[in-house]
Every structure is written in structure tokens, then in C-alpha cells.
Design goal:
386 residues, alpha/beta, Cobalt-precorrin-4 Transmethylase, domain 1, Rossmann fold, 3 domains, five-stranded mixed β-sheet, four-stranded parallel β-sheet, 15 strands, 41% helix, globular
Length: 386
């Protein structure tokens, strides 16, 4: 593991970012001031997943190694994993299929886990499994399994198509008798709460949540006892509001008998919460703009960009430094249109400027260094001035 960690550091470490952290999170180069959030970038779970993937390649140098989807939601890291000869399995139609597996193959389960039927199918082929699932994710699985055993429906606050939420939902079935319903946001939560209070058109309800509930789910039967869980990378404040609204609906429906029909466990990932708290603190300082660095399909990174926008700070969500085309043009992810768009006149090249930077838990430090260097290049500043 020491050899592996040394290799990982060689790919993803940044001496500059470490220097900025040691300097209290600030870097001043000429008229350019960078302010970094106190917590950002790789968390323990991501580091562990990457370390185990690198270790698998060394331990099984001659064997075929497959990965269930992406190791984490960062395109640069996933490209590096692919360059090691680790192939994707069952993530897209063009990838290798589970039916092609042999007993001497190795299969890596990513940090956000995998659905139970997929894991069982891999096991049935006799493959060696390297499980990198984050401990915080497994804590959620423990809770939803308990719900299933006790005939409590799990209401999961998350994105129904996200790998972690699909993995959690598969555990919410328990031994087959459990049920789940996934809610994305407060609007969907309110629809559920209205049904809890007053009932309604069951078919319309099921159409609205198509693809987001368990087979056989009946809102007239399975919203009697509920437990709120969540995808670990959601906004904590929103999950807490989901919990509050569902609890209030149960109490209004059941009165004094409500206590046994609702349960909630705090299952927000600690690293996710630390990064959100650190960003709120960063945004208290004067900033001309905020750059959020990370994969566009990363849930925790997306929520950091949402926080920046909600605080009315000019926010750009970028994959890496290549998105910074020039001082005039930047490619960034539009949270509302769900696509990468171009913005112009985003960076002034003279006079003082204050740039805030943060990154999701799946973003390596070297990508942050690249962004800093690109901005300094456009502004005609040199790091030698530090």
C-alpha cells in the first residue's frame, strides 16, 4: 500500500495546494488573490477507493480487471484508471457485459457501491471482488435494511438514477418484502406529504414517480410507516427539510399515534457536510467569483455549485483547467440546463481580483493547481512573485 499511495500521490498531489493550505487558505500573486475553502477535494472514502483500484492492478498484474461503472465521479481520475487497463463493466451498452466474466477475473465495486442484483451476478461467476464502497454509504444501507425488516418504507432523498441511490434502493428491499420511494427535491416531497395527509389519485401519483419506487409499491399501503434516508451527498439543509415535512405530514394524519410511524437517521456523509460548511464560511469573504472544480456528474460537487449560486456569487462549475479557454471565454456546467455552456467576459485581466475556489470530494488537488495556474496565465501574473 505504501507503493500504491506513492503512485497515487504522484498522479494527484499538488505541492502548491498544500502550500496554500499551510498559508491559511490564501494565495496572493500580484493583484490576484485566491481563497480556498478550508475543506475541499479528496475525502477519505475516495482516497481509499482509488488506492484499492491501484492496488488491485498490482496484486493481479496478469488478470483482467473490471470496474462496475466509474470508481468516482471525476473524468480525469477515471481516465487514469482506464489507462491502467481497468475496463468498465455493465455501465454502458458498449462496455463489457457480466455474462462475459470468467472465474479468474477481478471486479471492483466503486466508492458509491452497486446494486445487489449486479453484485450477486458477479459473485455467481466466481470472480474476485474488490469492494471500495464508502463506509458512510454502507451506514445508509444498514438503516434501510432495518426499515425493510420492520415493514417501514424508506423514503430516499436522492437522485433516482444515481449509482449510490440505486444501490441503496436495492438494499431497501431487504429480503424482498421492503419498499422504497425516491424524492429528488422539496417539490416531490410536498407531493408525497399531500398524499400522506389526504390520499389522492394513486395512478397519477405513480406516474409522477415512475422509476423512483419499488416493484409493488402502493402509496395507499406503503406510506403508513416511513423512514427518511438519503443519498449521502445531498444538501444537508434540504434533507433536513425533507425530514421535517414528512414528519409533519405523518403527525397531521396520525395525531398522537404518529411517533411509531416515522423515523429518521442522519446519514449525510461527514466529508460532504464539511465541504458544504467550509464553502459557506468561504463565501463570507469578499469574492469576485467562485470556481467549483469537479466532475459534472458528481452529486456533492453539484451541490457546492448550487450553494454558490444561492449566495448570489458569480459561480462557474468546471471539470478542469481545460474549461478555461481564455480570459474572455470559459466553458462551465449550467445547473439549470444540465449542460456545458460558454460564458464570455468572465475574467478581468487588470486590477485586483478575489477568486474563491472549492472542489468536490472526488476532485484531486492537481486539478485545482492547474486552474490556479491558468487564471494567473490569463492575468499575466507569475507564481514566482509568491
Amino acid at each position: 500500500m505504501e507503493r500504491v499511495q506513492s503512485e497515487v500521490e504522484g498522479h494527484y498531489r499538488s505541492a502548491l495546494v498544500e502550500q496554500i493550505r499551510a498559508n491559511g487558505g490564501a494565495l496572493v500573486v500580484g493583484n490576484t488573490t485566491f481563497r480556498l475553502a478550508k475543506q475541499f477535494g479528496f475525502c477519505y472514502g475516495v482516497e481509499r477507493a482509488i488506492d484499492l483500484a491501484y492496488a488491485a492492478r498490482k496484486v493481479f498484474p496478469e488478470q483482467r480487471i473490471f470496474l462496475l461503472g466509474e470508481i468516482i465521479h471525476n473524468p480525469d481520475v477515471n481516465a487514469q484508471i482506464a489507462a491502467m487497463g481497468i475496463r468498465h463493466l455493465a455501465a454502458h451498452p458498449s462496455d463489457a457485459d457480466i455474462d462475459e466474466l470468467h472465474p479468474d477475473d477481478v471486479v471492483i465495486v466503486p466508492a458509491f457501491g452497486a446494486e445487489m442484483p449486479i453484485v450477486e451476478a458477479v459473485k455467481a461467476h466466481g470472480c474476485q471482488i474488490v469492494d471500495t464502497t464508502c463506509g458512510d454509504v454502507m451506514s445508509v444501507w444498514k438503516r434501510v435494511r432495518q426499515n425493510a425488516r420492520e415493514q417501514v418504507t424508506s423514503i430516499i432523498h436522492g437522485k433516482s438514477a444515481h449509482e449510490e441511490t440505486r444501490a441503496t434502493a436495492s438494499r431497501a428491499l431487504g429480503e424482498g418484502g421492503g419498499h422504497y420511494l425516491v424524492v429528488l427535491d422539496l417539490a416531490e416531497t410536498d407531493a408525497v406529504c399531500d398524499y400522506i395527509r389526504r390520499g389522492g389519485d394513486k395512478e397519477a401519483f405513480l406516474r409522477r414517480f415512475d422509476g423512483a419506487y419499488s416493484t409493488g409499491f402502493d402509496p395507499d399501503l406503503h406510506l403508513g410507516k416511513v423512514g427518511v434516508a438519503n443519498q449521502t451527498t445531498m444538501l444537508r439543509s434540504e434533507t433536513e427539510e425533507v425530514q421535517r415535512r414528512v414528519r409533519a405530514a405523518i403527525a397531521e394524519r396520525d395525531g398522537s399515534d404518529a411517533s411509531g410511524n416515522f423515523r429518521f437517521f442522519d446519514t449525510i456523509c461527514g466529508a460532504t457536510q464539511e465541504r458544504q460548511d467550509a464553502l459557506f464560511e468561504l463565501l463570507r469573504a469578499p469574492l469576485d467569483m467562485l470556481l467549483v472544480v469537479g466532475g459534472y456528474n458528481s452529486s456533492n460537487t453539484t451541490h457546492l455549485a448550487e450553494i454558490g449560486e444561492r449566495q448570489n456569487v458569480k459561480t462557474f462549475f468546471v471539470r478542469n483547467a481545460e474549461c478555461l479557454h481564455s480570459a474572455n471565454e470559459i466553458a462551465h456546467f449550467d445547473l439549470h440546463g444540465k449542460e456545458e455552456v460558454l460564458a464570455t467576459n468572465w475574467l478581468k485581466t487588470d486590477g485586483p481580483i478575489y477568486v474563491g475556489i472549492t472542489a468536490g470530494a472526488s476532485c484531486p488537488n492537481n486539478l485545482i493547481e492547474d486552474v490556479i495556474n491558468r487564471i494567473l496565465l490569463f492575468r499575466g501574473e507569475l507564481l514566482e512573485k509568491v
